[in-house]
Amino acid sequence: MATSGDTSELHSPLDGQRLAGIPQSSVDDVDGAFQRARTAQQAWSGSNTADRAAILLRLHDLVLDRQAELLDLIQLESGKSRTHAFDEIAHVALTARYYARRLHKLIGGDRRLGALPGLTSVWVHRVPKGVVGVISPWNYPLTMAISDGIAAVAAGNAVVHKPDSQTPLTALAGVELLRRAGLPEDVWTVVTGPGAQIGTAIVDRADYVSFTGSTETGAGIARRLSDRMVGSSLELGGKNPMIVLPEADVERAAAGAVDACFSSAGQLCVSVERLYVHDSIYTRFRDAFVRRVRALKIDTGLDWRADIGSLVSAAQLEKTMKHVDNALANGASVAVGGNARPELGPYVHEPTVLENVSEAADCFAEETFGPVVSLYRYSTPAEAIALANAGDYGLNASIWGPTRQAREVAGAIMAGTVNINEGYAASFASIDAPMGGMRRSGMGRRQADEGLWRYTESQTVAAQRVMPMAGFGRLTHRSNARILTAGLRLLRRTPRA
Ligand code: NAD
Predict the structure, then answer these.
(1) Which residue from 136, 80, 89 is spatially nearest to 312, judged by alpha carbons?
(2) Which of 169, 193, 381, 453 has the greatest count of CB atoms below 10 A from its CB?
(3) How many other C-beta atoms are found inside a 10 Å radius of the C-beta of residue 132?
(4) What pTM was estimated for this model as a whole?
(5) Beta-bridge mates of residue 21
(6) DSSP result, 310-371
């Protein structure tokens, strides 16, 4: 919905070509979208779960069938390689199937233990919040736009959605497929425009906000929502560590580190930017990792040849280059990479491995959100845990080594997801498990039960039979207290009560 009359020009990061003029929404458009969404939500929340599940399964099939054009769009808008764009197709399909299959169980009503067994019956209903605001980023323009929103509509909400201004076409294509799958038009409206204006207008009107983006913006949204006592889930930044244990398979860990650090050219919230390797295998790991990184094929074509593509914008390239330069100025050395590659594309930067990065360097604790990783040594598990837990973030961690040892280390790591012998994909693709951040990496969780229940209010409905909870009116207070005391003693002896 966009009637302001303004248009924003969209160019591809792959080669600078003009993609489209994007009509911009006004605050009045956001108002209109919410009004229509509120009306549509009334009818939608009364639809049955089987019909909603069928829409999700049709979306699943459409996303797989129409992947070629979606992959082109993701690449053209974000600059990433086709193989990394495909991760988004798979994630939408996984999420759609998961919620389609689980929907009835998740919101169909839940029996609970009543206060007085046999006399008190209790159900928990999941009531949709109303209209959910979804504010999505540019780095995963399809799945961060669609997967958070489909859980909201599956739960009976309507959505007003603002994609990032760098990637609106991918988001619109995803929403178009939802319409084709059968989602009524006003149940999901897309508005466009700058975050400070249009994002804020959504935040001020929504009954719940699902936000993915930077920690700074997320914190501002949480502050703003607190005035209206409206909830949010915030998926924010990270400075994700990887630990390689001394017993790890070095070649496997080195290959895994490549995926962990350089998917979507490092512009991935769960990407690894700090790599801690045990002293005893440091040199072997370093050499294997550097060899693999050097062999990566950088390319910006709309085909499957590239291992790694472009960054999304001049701003992302500038931040990446600044972090590398600043690390070098503070004593770091480049093991591989380190340079922009303008001859391959305006925003291309080599995958880069740094060593000897000092605490004074910006990239020591700050998120780069680019293809740069720092290698460090450690000598004891306690030291590795302390290093991994340093800083304010807590999104994802990766540990390589035998599963039993790695799980022990995992238990001590402050991160919402910990992947063993994988970088991030094992947890990210396991939709039956929650995903989100601790500390300044966010609040709330996407995926799993929590990922859908965040969009609902729990409503407890309790029905009482025979004996009122306050006791029988014809008896004295003392007699009722005696009856209840005897009842409580009986329940104490009943293991399942
Ligand atoms: P950003 O916060 O600037 O923008 C994200 C979205 O918020 C965009 O749609 C933007 O238009 C909108 N926005 C901006 N200002 C707003 C405001 N004041 N009110 C409401 N909406 C506003 O983020 P970015 O810097 O473009 O994205 C990169 C960051 O996002 C990185 O730090 C990365 O770690 C994080 N991220 C996290 C996840 C995750 O799942 N945890 C996923 C992707 C990106």
Answers:
(1) 80
(2) 193
(3) 30
(4) 0.95
(5) 9
(6) --S-HHHHHHHHHHHHHHHHTT-EEEE---B-TTT-TT-B--EEEES--TTSHHHHS---SS
How many Å apart are CA 244 and CA 226, to the nearest integer?
Answer: 41
Is the CB–ligand 1 distance for residue 315 below 6 Å? no
The residue to mutate among 80, 211, 224, 269, having the most atoms of ligand 1 within 8 angstroms of its beta carbon, is 269
CA–CA dist 227, 353 (Å, integer): 44
Tell me the C-alpha distance between 96 and 200, whole Å. Answer: 28
Distance CA 423, CA 221 (A): 30
Residues 6 or more apart whose CB falls under 8 angstroms from that of 495 comprise none
Tracing tokens 């199937």 back to the chain, one arrives at: 97
Please list the active-site residues: 235, 269
Pocket lining: 241 vs ligand 1, CB cutoff 6 Å: no
Annotate 104-140 with DSSP letters as a single string. Answer: HHHHS-EEE--SSTTTEEEEEEEEE-SEEEEE--SSS
The answer to whether the CB of 167 is under 6 A from ligand 1 is: no
Enter the DSSP assignment of 247.
T
Burial of 290 (0-12, 13-18, 19+ CB in 10 A): middle
| Tokens 């459409």, residue located | 62
Is residue 49 within 8 Å of residue 103, measured between CB atoms? Answer: yes
pLDDT in tens, the chain (497 residues): 778 889 999 999 999 999 999 999 999 999 999 999 999 999 999 999 999 999 999 999 999 999 999 999 999 999 999 999 999 999 999 999 999 999 999 998 899 999 999 999 999 999 999 999 999 999 999 999 999 999 999 999 999 999 999 999 999 999 999 999 999 999 999 999 999 999 999 999 999 999 999 999 999 999 999 999 999 999 999 999 999 999 999 999 999 999 999 999 999 999 999 999 999 999 999 999 999 999 999 999 999 999 999 999 999 999 999 999 999 999 999 999 999 999 999 999 999 999 999 999 999 999 999 999 999 999 999 999 999 999 999 999 999 999 999 999 999 999 999 999 999 999 999 999 999 999 999 999 999 999 999 999 999 999 999 999 988 889 999 999 999 999 999 999 988 77
